[in-house]
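User: I need a structural model of Threonine/homoserine/homoserine lactone efflux protein from Chelatococcus asaccharovorans for a docking pre-check later this week. Nothing fancy, just the predicted structure tokens so I can convert them on my end. Input:
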Amino acid sequence: MMTFLPSTTIILTYTLACIVLFVTPGPDMSLMLAKTLSGGRRQGFAALVGTTAGCCVQTMLAALGVSALLAASVTAFTILKIVGALYLMWLAFEAIRHGSALSVDAKRPAKPMPLWRTALVGVGINLTNPKVVLFFVTFLPQFVEASDPHASAKLWFLGLYFVVVATPLSIALVLAADRVVGALKRRPRVMRVIDYGFASLFGAFALKMLTVQGR
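Assistant: Understood. Predicted structure tokens for Threonine/homoserine/homoserine lactone efflux protein:
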């Protein structure tokens, strides 16, 4: 029996959360789109490799840190979940208040950057974005019960699962870069729908978590 697998309901809910998080524009998406438009799909895929590698490191560090906290103290883990719920509510508020950011510089450089350097840029952008690791440190615990004897394994699974979900979406993003940028920039309403979807989903997670802890 694979004890590291969460319930089907948790997996489905988490998958939806991962998709909403992915489609909300941020530094990783901006880099992939910009590199694709300025240097072609090879540059876009190089950026994808870099941001994905960075995301793997970030999610695993988050899962490792939360797992260590759980092993040290169930009470501390529970406090982290409450803090995480409050953080998710703040993210929901910020999404509605300020909206999503998409910065794409599609100017073609005089000389294309080597693919390995583009990949390194992707790693650097992802790893130097503290919001990513902060998000996962507070986000992953929402899908695991502190009393679950297999909580640590499930945290590792969920961390990797996000990368599995995001990778094919990233590939599709690079392949359709010109259309994606056009749609997002010509249709600000699409951006607002994404913002409200992000806010609604994570606001619901936060309220559910606070309600459970309050019992």
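Before docking, keep this in mind: Residues 18-101+115-213 form one domain.
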